[in-house]
Amino acid sequence: MAKKGNRLVVLLECEKCKARNYSTVINRVNQREKKLKVKKHCKQCKSHTMHNMVKI
Ligand SMILES: [Zn+2]
Questions:
Q1: What is the C-alpha separation between 13 and 15, in angstroms, rounded?
Q2: pLDDT at position 43, please?
Q3: Model's pTM, two decimal places?
Q4: If you average pLDDT over every residue of the chain, what do you get?
């Protein structure tokens, strides 16, 4: 049986305009190290920018 509490909902925040464009679920056990950065499309910047993960 899978343990509860290891899944963490995070927001992906645009590095440039700080808009929170996406939300995703990460596994705390597997991704406990440094903050992840993902390249995503930002509506406000109208281009692909780096998005930082932010805890809710
Ligand atoms: Zn942006």
A1: 6
A2: 96
A3: 0.77
A4: 87
